[in-house]
Amino acid sequence: MKKNIANGLTLAAIAVVFTGIMTALVFFGVIDEYTAQILSLAGINVIVALSLNLISGFTGQLALGHAGFMAVGAYTTAYCIMKLNLPMFLAILIGGLVTAVFGLVIGFPTLRLRGDYLAIVTLGFGEIIRVIMINLEQITGGAAGLKGIPSFTEDILLAPALSLLWVFSVMIITIILVSNLIKSSYGRAILSVREDEIAANAMGINVFYYKMYAFTISAFIAGVGGGLYAPFFGYLNPTMFNFLKSVDFLVIVVLGGMGSITGTVIAGFVLTYLQEFLRFLQDYRLVIYPLLLIFIMLFRPSGLMGNREISILGLWQRLFKSKNQSQSKVDKAGER
Amino acid sequence: MTVLRVKDISILFGGLKAVSNFNMTLEEGELLGLIGPNGAGKTTVFNMITGVYHPTSGEIEFADKNGKFQNTTHMKPFQITQMGMARTFQNIRLFKDLTVLDNIRIAYHSNVKYKTFDAVFRTPAFFKEEAEITKKAIELLEIFNLGHKQAELAKNLPYGEQRKLEIARALATQPKLLLLDEPAAGMNPQETQDLTQLIRFIREKFNLTILLIEHDVSLVMGICERIIVLDYGQTIAEGTPAQISQDPRVIKAYLGEEVGLHA
């Protein structure tokens, strides 16, 4: 038990120090404002891609409508901040919760379908949400978009550092919580649904319930990601959440490895940065980027990480506590 | 005491009557064999008992953990499993990309008491129960001589061990009735013999009632007390192994009819 608490504290300390250093680097101008923006955007992409990985990679249910969930989260958060004057934290949380309700409602009829059928139906729902956003002009500003959403701070000098701090904090919390979930009995139930529905059912797992469970949690996280989007850009427009946006997340998940949190994080940062980095190629960017994806898929079809993980805690212990090497076998098996 | 009552079940697949008017009762502690030629409907009977298919007519009743009979005819498989019935599959259905240990731990999930909150925020309740589950799972693996392979992926086990793991996983759901669907399929005589020993052993150790589908006659005749023979979806004989092996209808179903030998 003591070891568990110590591990938890170590992990928390690493997370806080890492986020602190990144924020400081931006604050003191070591990382310029442009790069900070890309990093923040990548952080949001990682959050939404993680939510997609939860349902598509870990539960094995291909969903193509996550931009729709993001839109719900983004507009709800914007509404809470602008009309209800709620604090940022609460607004984002409500954004996530409202999206979770959407997930529940959409999941109930759709999760009875499998594979490509489910993909098509979720794609349809994603588009429906976008069209509703266009037509709900009083709340969303319609096709013209919603302007003037307050940023994380009014101080322009602080803005880049504070955006990064917000996004990275939420991202790290999401990573830790999702990874905790996966490494629990509930996570194993979800994985069993992916592996073999008939066998899972025969093991006493309520397959439909766990699909709903994963889908709703996934929607919540996507909503939180969308919620960060609103103050980050300060402007929302339904076309920001079209089908191609959903595909972006799918690319991150597939490239990182379906069922790997580490893979999603790495791919999220690499791909977001790559899209900006390739700008010097101008229009050729649109050729090079897909070509890269094709090559990676040809040579690493299971994604960068497959379904393996890199354990931060494991790395830490290997680096600094070589005496503790003889961790029991049980722990190793537990960490997958 | 009776554990399972199957009353007059039939099932139609389109125009095909795969099983018609099948009856069966299982007494506590019994080991009943269900045999028959290919396509006789044995696995279909299994699937109806475990809730994968629902019979077109007829009823199935299963005694729950308090010994009270429940109508399980239209229940879902996971509900029936939670009542205390577990099964294995003809073509092994392990969670291939998960470790041996996780395959077992999944089977304990329906009894897990900690909530999602405990899992996500790692409360003491989570660590305590996870440790218990892992301990139980490893103990079970040790019984099957799979303890040293707990960290391997299920798909990397040799065939015989995959069969064993599937039985171990079924036992982890803490059943009182175990259904084995051709456990000796693809095994050589030596492995079949080991399996016979294993089935005898777990039956004693876990106090099980067992229903067994099998093609391997030596296995069935060796361990079953009672046998039901199916052909074309109908029961053609029922009795002790000795009675069954003498029954002319059974011989006919398996070997065909004598034609004009004495003419």
User: Domains counted in the coordinates of chain A: how many?
Assistant: 1
Number of strands of chain B: 10
How many distinct helices of chain A?
15
CATH superfamily grouping of chain B: P-loop containing nucleotide triphosphate hydrolases
Radius of gyration of chain B: 20 Å
Shape of chain B: globular
- Overall CATH architecture of chain B: 3-Layer(aba) Sandwich
* Low-confidence residue ranges of chain A: 323-336
The averaged pLDDT of chain A comes out at: 87
Query: What is the overall shape of chain A?
Result: globular
Low-confidence stretches of chain B: none
**N- to C-terminal separation of chain A?**
20 Å
- What characterizes the major β-sheet of chain B? 6 strands, mixed
Radius of gyration of chain A: 20 Å
- Main sheet specs of chain A: none
Count the beta strands of chain A.
Answer: 0
Q: What is the tally of helical segments of chain B?
A: 10
How many domains in all of chain B? 1
Greatest interface and its residue counts?
A-B, 33 and 45 residues
How helical, in percent, are the residues of chain A? over 70%
**Estimated share of beta-strand residues of chain A:** under 5%
Structural notes for this entry:
- The complex is a heterodimer of chains A (336) and B (263).
- With 336 residues, chain A is mainly alpha-helical.
- Chain A is built from 15 helices and no strands.
- Chain A starts with a helix and ends with a helix.
- Chain B has ten helices and ten strands.
- In chain B, the strands form two sheets. Chain B has a six-stranded mixed beta sheet with strand order 6-7-8-3-9-10, sandwiched between helices. In chain B, strands 2-1-4-5 form a four-stranded antiparallel beta sheet, covered by helices on one side.
- Chain B is globular and about 70 Å long.
- Chain B starts with a strand and ends in an 8-residue tail after the last helix.
